[in-house]
Amino acid sequence: MNDDTSRRVNRGRRKLLAGLGALGAGTLLPGCDDSISRNPQVREALGSMEKLTRGAQRLVASRQSLAQEFDKSDIAPVFRANGTTDPQEPEYLRMVENGFADWQLRVDGLVNRPLELSLAQLREMPSRTQITRHDCVEGWSCIGEWTGVVLGDLLDQAEPHDNARFVVFHCADHTYGRSDLYYESLDMIESYHPQTILAYDLNGDALPVANGAPIRLRAERQLGYKHAKYVMRVEVVESFRDLYGGKGGYWEDRGYEWWAGI
Amino acid sequence: MTSPANTATDHEPPSGSPSPESSNTRLIKRHSPGTRVWHWINLVALVILLMSGLQIFNAHPTLYWGDQSLSENAVLAIGARRTAEGEARGYLQISDYRFDTTGVLGWSQHNDEYSQRAFPAWATLPGSKWLAMGRNWHFLAAWIFATSLVAYLIYTVIRRQRRRQIFPSAHQWRQMKQTFLDHARFRFHHVSDYNVIQKLTYIVVLFGLLPMLVLSGLAMSPTMDAAWPWLPEMFGGRQSARTFHFIGAVAIVLFVVIHVGLVVISGFFNNLRSMVTGTYRINVSDEANQRDER
User: Fold this and answer.
1) Is B177 helix (H, G, I), strand (E, B) or coil?
2) What's the pLDDT at B1?
3) Which residues of A touch B240 (CB under 8 A)?
4) Which of A258, B11, B200, B266 has the smallest CB count inside 10 Å?
5) Percentage of chain A surpassing pLDDT 90?
6) Which of the residue ranges A220-234, B7-21, B88-102, B208-222 would you say has the lowest mean pLDDT?
7) How far does the CA of residue B51 sit from the closest CA of chain A (Å)?
8) Chain B nearest CA to A98, separation (Å)
């Protein structure tokens, strides 16, 4: 390499390094100014990392790998309630008043046999009890004992179509008074995971209103916002694009990742 | 090209005029392109990770030991409270000790308005309270940081030259006391090799601190914990992992402060140039002394 080329290469390198430095300095500024974070292209680029994370986590976690289960002695004295804790929807208040006696869970959408099940019918089905750690996206964790129907058993009864790709959970509450109802969705792998249950008991007693009565979803390999409370209807779909904000969940419509594995 | 044995002839200053120090100094190639690129990528990634990490921390500004968040196991909390006179004060609580941190931690100003927030807006990414976006930034930078860390550690272990740069020689171990004394007196030898303090620091950071940050971060993921149950266990539970992640971040900040301080006082331009272009000026007599001692 003669001197001239080597100098040119060096200049090119210097430019690259200066660029990296400028990028570094640039990242210090948005601390005070959110304009970079509000840029739609930046948000899309950042959002695409979610697919990489999901792919990598699906690679290392098998379909069956279980979330850790704890001992009775690990159960928290009070299970922390978050999000909606006291729904004020008149229809819901009526159901609370009569102990969910005429509440029915609908399982429909892309299924051969739509179901309508009362709380008593759900309790008669085979159940699963698990003591697991709930991990909130905010950072805290809480251990509780959940009993409920394995979602896979319900889906087997309903017989999903071959094109079924997601299971959507429709809820009774308008979180923080917003116009849209809370909802969530799982893909078929998480829906058929052995620890994915619709829980009706917490720590041996009927699920309290604060924690999602009469039933809530437990998806133990996902963060807390996936665990929909006050579930009224389970809908099997091919795509959630036409539901609410189109991102597959209440918090997803507000910028959170659909893949809540981390 | 990256060998420290390279002679100075190819690397004279572009001006061509002889430098006043040129009689007893010589330019060498110190840092390989891989090291230099890794270094500056890390700077960008770590700044994003730190600031977005503080945004995430702000969503629940308390740290605990164990699996879950029980108030009796809290070790650190940042918050705000009102005095009897109704004045809001920010505080940092570590174990039983409480410090007034009004204006910075717990209670600080953003857009001309005071509000309760653990870390102030100037330290977080984004500045406003925005957990979803903080997570997006964090995971983008985490992917870049973790993959380049793994690549760099492999590169360090498999390359003989890198191993010699990072692991102290038998002679250096014997000279350890002298090296500490020289450092304490701010006497820096400008030679091609790292001294034993530098090498030990880099080993602890490269093979201890940085991997610990990645692993404790992964231990907070419920899917990772299902896949690798040993992960939260090695930290003593998910909340302990979160606490270690925070301690690791503080350690990185301390490392950077000391690192930049030493870079400045031991020859700022020379050090910075060696990490940008790779070229580093060594002291010929220092270098000769070091060789003779070997």
Assistant:
1) helix
2) 37
3) none
4) B266
5) 79
6) B7-21
7) 7
8) 34
Residue B17 pLDDT > 80, yes or no?
A: no
Residue B124 distance to chain A (closest CA, Å):
5
Give span(s): CATH 1.20.950.20, chain B. Answer: 8-60+128-293
Residue B223 has its nearest CB partner, among A61, A77, A140, at A61
- Whether the pLDDT of residue B6 is over 50: the answer is no
Angstrom CA distances, A185 to A244, B12, B137, B223, stand at: 12, 64, 24, 16
What residue ranges of chain A have pLDDT lower than 70?
Answer: 1-33
DSSP string, chain A: --HHHHHHHHHHHHHHHHHHHHHHHHHHGGGT--HHHH-HHHHHHHHTHHHHHHHHHHHHS-TTPPPP---GGG--SS----S-SS---HHHHHHHHTTTTT-EEEEEESBSS-EEEEHHHHHHS-EEEEEEEEE-TTS-EEEEEEEEEEHHHHHHHH-B-TT--EEEEEES--GGG-SSPPEEEEEHHHHTSTT-EEEEEETTEEPPGGGTSS-EEE-TTS-GGGS-SSEEEEEEES--TTSTTSSSSTTGGGT--S----
B243 to chain A, minimum CA–CA distance in Å?
A: 11
Q: Determine the Cα–Cα distance for residues A128 and A148; give it in Å rounded to an integer.
A: 6
Best B119, B223, B245 residue to mutate vs chain A (most A CBs within 10 Å): B223
> In CATH terms, is domain B8-60+128-293 a member of 1.20.950.20?
yes
Contacting residues of B for A64, CB less than 8 Å apart: none
Disruptive mutation site among B50, B64, B69 for chain A (greatest number of A CBs within 10 Å):
B69
Has residue B56 got a pLDDT over 60?
Answer: yes
pLDDT tens profile B223-241: 999 999 999 999 999 999 9
CB contact under 8 A, A31 and B60: no
pLDDT 10s digits, B37-52: 999 999 999 999 999 9
Residues from chain A contacting residue B223 (CB–CB below 8 Å)? 57, 61, 221-222, 261-262
Express each pLDDT in B129-180 by its tens digit. 999 999 999 999 999 999 999 999 999 999 888 888 889 999 999 989 999 9
Helical ranges in B205-283 per DSSP H: 210-218, 222-227, 230-235, 238-265, 268-276
Domain at A67-254, CATH homologous superfamily: Oxidoreductase, molybdopterin-binding domain (3.90.420.10)
